[in-house]
Give the backbone structure.
Amino acid sequence: MVLSALLLSAPQHIKILQARIYPCYLANKLGYFQGKMEGENEILIRSHILYYEEVFSQLNARGVRYLVIGGIAVNLHGIPRMTADLDLMVDLSPANITKLIEALTLLGYSTKAPVDPNDLTDPEIRKKWQEEKHMAVFSFYKTLIPYYQIDILLENPIDFDTAYRDRDIMGTEYLPIPVISLRDLIQVKKLIGRKQDKADIESLKKVKKIKREKGNNA
């Protein structure tokens, strides 16, 4: 059954729940192109990943340099955790941010804050937001579906170029998704240090240990 047919046939309560599923973990690291799933889980997973698919596709098509971090990255590395927002760490150069804004605008995203999204390209304005408004991320939301939110880090806690070089490419040959490496994800979460980050670190360390035992350097 194709993705569009699944969406059209999904009961309303399933459509509402789609933003609260373990979007990528339950899809077996985006193996939904090959794997088999049953019943409501199939509808939930496929409909939710369709949302991420259009975002990733647009970013990739425009050559945006970005890394998936946050809860979605945790899911992709094999830890089930409820999440809805898509957190990104990006190359903060003006040219790259401009391409990012163009992609999200095309997909119907607007800024949550009442500001010009192009202000995101200015490092001085980003610094001002951090110091005066205590902002850590710049958020975009889907105008027609407000619970679809994308958060962009205003300041990268680790060197982006190095993290991008060491990224993991997940997804499929048709939809490659640059995900922050397991090692760097743990480091980022240590630096951010929220309660949820600390819980994630413990789980991610277990995954790292399992991968090492299997001879897979992480």
The chain is about 45% helix and 15% strand. The domain at 65-213 is CATH 3.30.460 (Beta Polymerase; domain 2).
